[in-house]
# Entry
Amino acid sequence: MTEEKKVVGLLTEIKTLLSQNKRVMNVDDLVAYTGLSKSKIYKLTSLRLIPMGQNAHVRQKFFDKEAIDAWLLGKPDLSDEFLEQKFNEQLLKRKRV
# Structure
């Protein structure tokens, strides 16, 4: 590996570490911070099972790092089975209305 590639690798690691110190994170930051996939995060947001910003004027999803830490420490059920169950429950509620 060349010196240039080593430097680029180190800079990428530093950038990742610095992004985890942000108070407000977007989906990409949250993926890097939690290790969850983007699709799982989008499922959680659509089911409103993850704490996120509530600004109706902003289309992009934002997350408060402290709220995410508290949520993660609360050991949320992130299994695909649980999310599928919640999704189906939501569909049933919409059909009844």
Remarks:
- The radius of gyration is 17 Å.
- The mean pLDDT is 88.
- Strands lie at 24-25, 63-64.
